[in-house]
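Think of the structure tokens as a kind of shorthand, similar to the way a musician reads notation: each symbol stands for something richer, in this case the local conformation of the backbone. In the example below we present two proteins back to back. Begin with the first one, reading the sequence and then the tokens, and try to describe in your own words what changes along the chain.
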Amino acid sequence: MQYSNSQRRYDSFRNEWDLNEEFDPTAHYDSDEDDDDDFDFQRGSNAHDGINEPVASSQGSNLDPAQELGRRLIAHEAEDVQSEKMSTATLEEVLYWFHGLQLPAAQSSETELMPVEAQKATRCKSSLACRNADRDPYNPRSEWVLSVLMNGLLSRGALLHGFPPDWSDFDPSCTNYLARVYNKRFSVSRVQITNQREDMYRISDGEETDYELIVGRASVVLLCLRQMKHLSLDEVAEYLCSWGIKLSTCLRVRHEDRGPRTSLRAVERIPYQVKGFQLGKDNYMSYVGRRKQLFRSNEVLRAALKHGGVPWRLAMEVSEDFVTSGPSSRVTEVGGFYKTEEGDELWDEMLTEDQINIICGVYKVEREESAGKSGKKGDDCGRLTEHVSWFLKDASWRGSGLDVGFWSADAESWYQRRVKKYLDRDFKCENQTEWKKLLKLWREAQKVAEHLETLSRSFLQCHVLHGLEPGSILEYIRTYLTYLLLLVCGDETWHVKMLTLKTTPI
């Protein structure tokens, strides 16, 4: 590409010079042939590139600007809409690392399962969002063990029960009892966010860093604490990002120390379609092109990689790298922030709602109802509209059976089927209600994820945040009261747990 000096900017995220529309609004792309899509994250990046605005369509074109942009970007790159299947965690990795379930290995002497047991084993994999997960080729867990595990995954109460207690590293009888063996190099503290019901957690490695690593799930904190090797904070961020976990690498700023914002993010326009419109290949190609254009921004791509869920997966289509450092130096100019109860601001690259709409391929569509009907939401022109999209938005993803805290094998399988559907010319966008219905097949997985997250939160609270030492009298009292509660609630295995408790050293 040939630009004048006023049109050039250095993008340290991609280690290249690129077009800068902020310095020169007349800048435009001459060609896409020399674009380099291979780039790496830079540790400690001080990128000064801004959010790219959509390239305006040519004056003589009658096409919708989004369609014009998509056609120009990918007219010669049709093969780029293909998606390669990503490698996800094996079933055994999910059980051990994410949930702390240390199940016995398969034995050659095990007999064939009865139909009911086989059904339970399949149900167990589905409830963990791992029905399509690969298995550990060297140390797989047997189907019989999975069928027994299923008895406890949907159990109620303050502890997992329905299977041997030493299968969980939350239990003192487990060989690798987590309260005894977790990585003490990491320190964890609670972060209270204003107007947010659930607390978040700060993970530190004890070293001086320019940012704070913040996560929202207790199970993610315990995933880090199960790592026995010494990891820097950058390596932890990279590790979590490789799982597709939502995280933040925040810069803490006192409100009175932050200067006024001098630049505003450009608002991305959502394409409008009239009632009864028909989608075609051009629409899908335009969507992919516009999404790629948005991901050419350092901040947007990093924000998507830290967002988790569908935006993370779509960002991985253009980058095989992970977040390995804190936010850019101008995060207070282009990012967003959480406000803590202490009054501080935690700034990070964050996706705006309109950016998520572009990434997920949202259209604003005229509704079937008449424009005069009351109680319906309309646009600025008074038209009744609804959002349909190529991929579901956060509102539909949250609470679904695929929202289990990480990008699972079942989520990847669903994603690949969806992309194949479009490549096979089945062009249909869904509204958010339809998306929720399509994900009901994994309803049980969400219940299991919530139960395991509750147990992780309780363990983190007692043994890490409050520092109850394993074998201490306080831990003994807490565990004793917990088992009494299980007895009152009718737990059939209470006598086994009490026997385990009596043999635990004080």
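Once you have a description of the first chain, move to the second and do the same.
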Amino acid sequence: MVLKSVLFFLVLLNWTVAVSPPEDDGIYEQLYDGLPEDVKTFIGQLTEDDLKLLSSLSNTFNVIFRENPSKFEMKAMALIQSKSVSLWTKIKTVIDSWRRTMANLSESARTFIEDSEEKLLAISDIDDWDAVGLIGIVRSILNAEEKLDQSVKDELKKWFPALIMVLEDKDIRQFFDDTKNMSADQLNKTLWNMN
């Protein structure tokens, strides 16, 4: 599940850029600065071949996940290892780091991250990238973050600064406020016209 969560976190980062105003072109740098050092190292070590391989395997990853979510990480990592031991090593290092970080969190912070992972994993079940479903999932994560005690938010900010930066971004919050009362058709048009 950790591998799928890492992949979906990258999708969430791209969403942040999509809903940020065009003049805010420093968003990638801000997000990058908020990443843990081992994640920055991982990103810096990814080669063009690594990215091409991950892209070429994305449909296979979705099939593996739908067939047996509980074995996704094991099967996906075995597939990656069979294609590139170098990429497998890079990803395994990030996954091991993620697990160490999760072990250091309080129960409330860990529960929020685990619940958010589950919600992000539900994106795989959305047919044809339905904007209503996608926005509903992200909105539920934003609402859960709003309800956290400040001490839990501070803890998450320490361990996951980029994630909290995304969740507390005023432009993202405004986008979700603006779309709250839109019909399904309006949501689909709004979301897919942002690209």
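Compare your description with these statements about the second chain. The mean pLDDT is 79.
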